[in-house]
Amino acid sequence: MDVNALKEMTCDEAVKYIKDGMVLGIGTGSTIELLVPKIAALQEQSIYVTGVCTSKQTKAQAESLNIPIKEVNDVTHIDLAIDGADEVDPDLNLIKGGGGALFREKVIDEMADQFIVLVDERKRVNYLGETFKLPVEVDPFNWVHVQRHIASYEGVTPERREQDGEPFVTDNGNYILDLALSEKIDPKALHEYLIHLTGVLETGYFIDCATQVIYGTENGVEEVFKESN
């Protein structure tokens, strides 16, 4: 089964959780591009939602399919957020930001009463940073100094993300530093170090944020729920 089929499988399962009248946080990335038309199609079943999008790209796609969209500052709550991830560990902690929308994703996902993550089974890892670099959004003004500070952290190698030979720029006008982690590193400790560096807006660690992960596997959909503390 190809990867797109696995992604479609998770999207089909996710739409079952969308109810009429919801304020819906809509993520960013290749899986969500497949999900958005399915959200629009729910209107044929008289299920209408208001979307709050994590990127300009998702907003444009949703509006082209006549999904009503509001800005995050114009809503008081989000009932459900649905997004993808780049890695998921056994405790449903995530690395996100491969699409460069990590700050907006974190704002919306943390606001949501429920946050469902859609991934194919390749994204399952033993620990965060095992297969994917950690994205960190930084201000362009002092990004070189921030990169030097990050490089001083043992086991971490930062590199500025580029696109077509130019610095990748987020919807917020910032750069992304992708951090290669050479070993298993405590996510909470590294996040705390990074978030206190002047010029760092946010990191791609999403710890204790997801309430549910829907995996697309060769054997069908697997749903895993966050255990209550």
UniProtKB/TrEMBL annotation:
The organism's taxonomic lineage, starting at the top: Bacteria, Bacillati, Bacillota, Bacilli, Bacillales
Q: What is its EC number?
A: 5.3.1.6
Q: Which residues bind substrate?
A: 28-31, 83-86, 96-99, 123
Q: Which Gene3D superfamilies match?
A: 3.30.70.260, 3.40.50.1360
Domain of life, per UniProt, equals Bacteria
Give the family this protein belongs to, as stated in its UniProt record.
Belongs to the ribose 5-phosphate isomerase family.
Q: Pfam families attached here? A: Rib_5-P_isom_A
Active site: residue positions: 105
GO terms classed as biological process: D-ribose metabolic process; pentose-phosphate shunt, non-oxidative branch
Record key words, sorted: Isomerase
* HAMAP family reported in the protein's UniProt record: Rib_5P_isom_A
NCBIfam families to which the protein is assigned, alphabetical: PRK00702.1, rpiA
Q: Which reaction does it catalyse?
A: aldehydo-D-ribose 5-phosphate = D-ribulose 5-phosphate
Alphabetized CDD domains for the sequence:
RPI_A
Q: How does it assemble?
A: Homodimer.
The record, for InterPro entries, names: NagB/RpiA_transferase-like, Ribose5P_isomerase_typA_subgr, Ribose5P_isomerase_type_A
Q: Which GO terms describe its molecular function?
A: ribose-5-phosphate isomerase activity
GO cellular component labels: cytosol
User: Does the keyword Membrane feature in the UniProt annotation?
Assistant: no
Q: Which pathway does the protein contribute to?
A: Carbohydrate degradation; pentose phosphate pathway; D-ribose 5-phosphate from D-ribulose 5-phosphate (non-oxidative stage): step 1/1
What is the recorded function of this protein according to its Swiss-Prot or TrEMBL entry? Answer: Catalyzes the reversible conversion of ribose-5-phosphate to ribulose 5-phosphate.
Signal among the record's keywords? no
What is the designated name of this protein? Answer: Ribose-5-phosphate isomerase A
Gene expressing this chain: rpiA
